[in-house]
Amino acid sequence: MTLRAIVRGLLRKGGYDIFRFNTRNSPVARRIALFKHFGVDLVLDVGASDGWYGLELRKTAYTGHIVSFEPMTGPFAKLNRRAHDDGNWEAVNVGLGDRAGRRDIHVSQNSESSSLLPMLPRHAEAYPRSKYIGTESVEIQRLDDILTYYRGASETTFLKMDVQGYEHHVLEGAKASLCDITGVQLEMSLVPLYDGELRFVEKIGYLEDRGFTLMSLQPVIEDPVTGQLLQVDGLFFRAHGA
Question: In this structure, what DSSP letter does residue 226 have?
Answer without folding.
Answer: T
